Amino acid sequence: MNIRAILDGLPQAATAAVEQTGARPLGAYPRTRMRRMRGDDWSRRLARETQLSVNDLIWPIFVQDGATAETPVPSMPGVMRYSVAQAVKAVGEAAALGIPAIAVFPVVDPALKTEDGREAANPDNIVCRAVRAIKAAHPQIGIICDAALDPFTSHGQDGLLKDGEVINDETVAALVRQSLVQAQAGCDVVAPSDMMDGRVGAIRDALDGAGLTHVKILAYSAKYASAFYGPFRDAVGSGSALGLKGKQTYQMDPANGDEALRETALDIAEGADMVMVKPGLPYLDVLWRVKDAFKLPTFVYHVSGEYAMLKAAAANGWLDGDKALMESLACFKRAGADGILTYGAIDAAKKLKSGG
């Protein structure tokens, strides 16, 4: 029913009064105006569907040998490689901001890198030393340890090689040994990022068999063979070792979505407590599908290349870096992420704490 029909049913005096207001036929303008709820800050906040908080953030950090070393990663502005002592201090800042967890990645001395990556299973390697020190100083913060061989291998691959190819089952055995020393050092979460078949189940069995049933597994379930990992490989020193070889024989094809659901289902069946999609922004559709399908705690990695692009654009004045970062993180939440690994965690936490 339009305004004219309503007016026709009113007494003549009432009709004249309404017409004097200048009312126009209903079809001439919208009754529902979506901008009404956008008009004020308070109404935008009340109607906001997705709420990002510091509780959603996980901060990846790089640790290296050295007494007080703290060196920047050139391709990731604002990101540092920390000595163990400096990492303890840096994690203190994260804990004070309320960030619930960190993820530790090693920068391994090239002299310790071997074909078989045996340093990964050394209970006194750089990761284990960092975990023990951080956990002693900040017992309230969760510590996630990456389970993959690439920082420890001379060839930069995530697994062991035979005739130039990454072999699966022997790599899984090496990952089990790596996961055990990390858990025994005190990490709370083992995060296999290697994409070998069957590794989640093997790690779960080994942890349980060692009495480490409380240690959680965050499976990199949908990790793509992406072009967005370059700065990370610079940071840990594995990129140059790869040469022309990529990781397409074990990481996922970026063109595939259904395959991510199969990978995730397998990891859940093998005992994963949490699952992850990596990279982040180019794969929001995959993140949404994984969360929608399984309803398990689902994480996303805002990877080094994504972070570096934001920083480079901000440095050139092409983007407001802070706003672009916060928008990106909100989009991960909107797509279903329960937690976000981001190198911008400290900056984001400060913004959130200040109400930004």
What would you say this structure looks like, in words?
By secondary structure, the chain is α/β, with parallel strands linked by helices. The protein has two domains: 3-34, no CATH class; 53-353, Alpha-Beta Barrel (TIM Barrel). It is 41% helix and 17% strand. It has 14 helices and twelve strands. The chain has helices at residues 3-8, 12-20, 41-47, 84-96, 126-137, 168-185, 199-209, 230-236, 239-242, 258-269, 284-294, 304-315, 321-334, 345-353, and strands at 57-64, 70-72, 80-82, 101-107, 142-147, 160-162, 165-167, 189-192, 216-223, 274-278, 298-302, 339-342. The strands form two sheets. Strands 1-4-5-8-9-10-11-12 form an eight-stranded parallel beta barrel, surrounded by nine helices. The chain has a two-stranded antiparallel ribbon with strand order 6-7. A hairpin with a 2-residue loop joins strand 6 and strand 7. Helix 4 (84-96) packs across helix 5 (126-137), helix 5 (126-137) runs parallel beside helix 6 (168-185) and helix 6 (168-185) packs across helix 7. The radius of gyration is 25 Å and the shape is globular. The two termini are 45 Å apart. 42% of the residues are buried. The mean pLDDT is 92.
